[in-house]
């Protein structure tokens, strides 16, 4: 195999001197020269002088030193991984040994039943109540179907608020009336989720239903709210106040004057002669 004349020159990788890739210069036969040529950039060529002065050996030692830290790092990472696997196996064996030494557990109650202890715990789970007004009533006459629809609507609302919580109970307050939607009260087991729902209510401006959501009231708070609603109705009807200018927030009745909301004192709320003007 003949080598083209323009491919006969090469530079020594060590000293950079140029010489010919021929039998006369390299003392290699033509087959070996063709093999070197086939390697292309994968071959590092050194002149006879650098070979004689052992420059080649120093280059090999330098390359080995550069490669060694990388290999040491890989070996250390592999040893760490093996140690973690051994630790996991040891912990699993310890866990199995503890389970084997533990006293036998009582059998589980049959499916569909609840043990007295479990029922006691369930009865004492804290339930955080939230009430919703404006949720349409189901048209079904079946109480079970009505409750399922309410449950689905509450779940839809909490999903819209991006609150992932467990809903324990959903119920309507008061007797059924065909011409009005009763208030819905639902409970969650976590105060955190209750607070998260109440803090996210501004998102309901974009909801597909107009809902009014607040925390569930105790008996005293409910009594006060009824009094506030009566006073609000009285002020709207007797003093001709616009509905948009009188509101109830956090069990406080406020009137808007000159663009500012002013809370009505408790004494004025229960004063039949109170004049907001």
Describe this structure in words.
The chain has 277 residues and is α+β, with helices and mostly antiparallel strands. It is 45% helix and 15% strand. The protein has helices at 23-26, 30-39, 48-52, 55-101, 116-123, 143-160, 191-199, 219-238, 266-269, and strands at residues 9-11, 18-20, 128-133, 167-172, 184-188, 212-215, 246-249, 252-257, 260-263. The strands form three sheets. The chain has a four-stranded antiparallel beta sheet with strand order 4-5-3-6, covered by helices on one side. A three-stranded antiparallel beta sheet has the order 7-8-9. It starts with 8 loop residues before the first strand and ends in an 8-residue tail after the last helix.
Structural class: alpha+beta
Q: Order of strands across the widest beta sheet?
A: 4-5-3-6
Summed up, the helix count is 9
The biggest sheet amounts to: 4 strands, antiparallel
Distance between the termini: 113 Å
Uncertain runs with pLDDT below 50, 5 residues or more? 118-124
The total strand number stands at 9
Mean pLDDT: 79
Q: What portion of residues is helical?
A: 40-55%
Beta-strand residue percentage: 5-15%
């Amino acid at each position: 195999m003949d080598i083209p004349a323009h491919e006969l020159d090469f530079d020594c990788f060590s000293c950079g001197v140029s010489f010919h890739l021929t039998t006369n210069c390299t003392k290699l036969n033509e087959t070996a020269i063709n093999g070197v040529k086939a390697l292309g950039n994968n071959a590092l060529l050194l002149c006879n002088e650098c070979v004689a002065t052992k420059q080649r050996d120093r280059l090999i030692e330098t390359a080995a030193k550069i490669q060694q830290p990388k290999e040491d790092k890989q070996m250390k990472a592999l040893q760490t991984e093996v140690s973690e696997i051994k630790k996991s196996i040891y912990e699993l064996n310890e866990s199995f040994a503890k389970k084997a030494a533990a006293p036998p557990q009582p059998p589980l109650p049959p499916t569909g039943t609840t043990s007295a202890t479990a029922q006691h715990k369930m009865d004492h789970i804290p339930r955080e109540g939230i009430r919703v007004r404006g949720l349409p009533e189901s048209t079904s006459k079946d109480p079970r179907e009505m409750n399922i629809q309410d449950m689905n609507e509450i779940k839809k609302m909490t999903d819209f608020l991006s609150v992932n919580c467990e809903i324990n109970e959903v119920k309507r307050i008061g007797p059924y009336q065909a011409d009005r939607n009763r208030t819905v009260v639902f409970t969650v087991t976590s105060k955190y989720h209750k607070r998260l729902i109440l803090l996210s209510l501004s998102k309901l401006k974009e909801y597909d239903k107009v809902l009014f959501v607040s925390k569930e009231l105790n008996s005293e708070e409910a009594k006060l709210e009824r009094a506030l609603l009566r006073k609000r109705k009285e002020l709207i009807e007797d003093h001709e106040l616009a509905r948009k200018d009188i509101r109830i927030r956090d069990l406080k009745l406020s009137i808007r004057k000159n663009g500012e909301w002013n809370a009505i004192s408790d004494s004025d709320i229960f004063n039949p002669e109170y004049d907001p003007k």
